[in-house]
Amino acid sequence: LEEQIRRSDRLKTIGQIAAGTAHEIRNPLTAIKGFMQLLNKSLNDRGMDKEQGYVGIVLSELERVNGLVSEFLLLSKPKEIKRDWMEIGQVVQEIMPMIQNEAIMHNVTVLYYPQPGLPPILADKELLKQVFLNLGKNAIEAMGEGGTLIIREHGDPGGSDKLAAEFIDTGPGIPPDVLDKVFDPFFTTKPQGTGLGLSVCQRIVDDLGGTIEVSSDEHGTEFTVWLPCAKT
Ligand code: ADP
Ligand code: MG
User: Is Cell wall biogenesis/degradation a UniProt keyword of this protein (predicted)?
Assistant: First the structure.
């Protein structure tokens, strides 16, 4: 618990800094992107292939910066969380097409085990989709040579008013000395990583009144998201 408090304090500080700067960065980015697209079109009209290639690189790098800024904005406290009752399975279903798409590109099989009859959860659907997507993407990215991603949902056998969504992969696992760092902002082991995905997940799940847990060994990794649900 102490660890979780430390984590969420650090996230608050980062979130405040992020909130102040992310919007300021996004506005000029939008202008740059717009004019780059116009330039791209002119170059295309003139058959200037080489120059169009340069602009293409600028545009794709812009997308990366944009992604980073989006994660910053999510780290900053959302203005207001819109919590509603919903089926956890419905949330998983809505991210499935995106997960499947990513999985195909990485030669990963996705197995989803819906569990009918679970009580509804209290959550913000868009934010929760962001969490599930991040966990799914991380799992798929971890399985470089293909593998299996299992997504499960279940109640608490202990009988608490929480239920869980699990993302289990057959990747290489997270070394023990790294395991307590994965939620730290900017911690990444990927050449192109931002290290913000799990910080964003942690922040959102915190705000939804849930918890997020990880366990891992050399056979794979399991992330579990506990969310408040209706009493049964
Ligand atoms: P990023 O994906 O940009 O690296 P994240 O915050 O999403 O940032 O993840 C941080 C780090 O945690 C990753 O770089 C990776 O080392 C580790 N990680 C997260 N999920 C997994 C997973 N399913 N299997 C192995 N390592 C993982
Ligand atoms: Mg990630």
Answer: no
